[in-house]
Amino acid sequence: MDGEPLIRIRELRKSFGAHEVLKGVSLDVHAGEVVSIIGASGSGKSTFLRCINVLEKPSGGTMDFGGFHFDYEPGARRQPSAAQLCELRARIGMVFQSYNLWPHMTVLENVVEAPIRVKGETPAEARDKAEALLARIGLAEKRHAYPSKLSGGQQQRVAIVRALAMQP
């Protein structure tokens, strides 16, 4: 691909005690590119994604994302500040394996929460975007339903819409 990658990860490592889960993973992702991460259960796929979003702090390596450069090598001085982490997480969409929908909130409330609290959108603005996204994936009629009343596939689609509502 031409140009600089949107995401560049070099030699990313993650250990839990003596157990090394990620052993020097490197990856470039360019604009418009779709990347799939596949592997056996327990091979580190979720850990890798959690490290990208810094939900898990890497044990080593570097990561670059549109203006952010994080260096996790021992003694490095370029580790992210709390403010940088907040900004980074607002710009990366992530759908968890268990979807992590808030059970006490409706579908619509789940989708508008982050755009209002993190991005500062007005409730009306966030609701309009959320309803358009829900309609686009065929879940407009479920906007007032609670997650427990949805099928697993519907919960997954709501989680995807929630991530897209942040315009990552």
Biggest sheet character = 4 strands, antiparallel
Helix and strand sequence:
EEHEEHHHH
Principal-axis shape:
globular
- Counting DSSP H or I runs of 4 or more residues, the number of helices is 5
Write the SSE topology.
Layout: E1 7-16, E2 19-29, H1 45-52, E3 60-65, E4 68-71, H2 82-91, H3 107-117, H4 123-136, H5 152-164
Antiparallel strand pairs: 1-2, 1-3, 3-4
Give the structure's gist in a few sentences:
The protein is built from five helices and four strands, in the order ββαββαααα.
What are the salient characteristics of this protein?
single chain, 168 residues, four-stranded antiparallel sheet, 5 helices
What would you note in describing this structure?
The structure is a single chain. The protein is α+β, with helices and mostly antiparallel strands and 168 residues long. It contains five helices and four strands. The chain has helices spanning 45-52, 82-91, 107-117, 123-136, 152-164; strands spanning 7-16, 19-29, 60-65, 68-71. Strands 2-1-3-4 form a four-stranded antiparallel beta sheet, covered by helices on one side. Strand 3 and strand 4 form a beta hairpin. Helix 3 runs parallel beside helix 5. The longest helix has 14 residues, at 123-136. It starts with 6 loop residues before the first strand and ends with a helix. The relative contact order is 0.12.
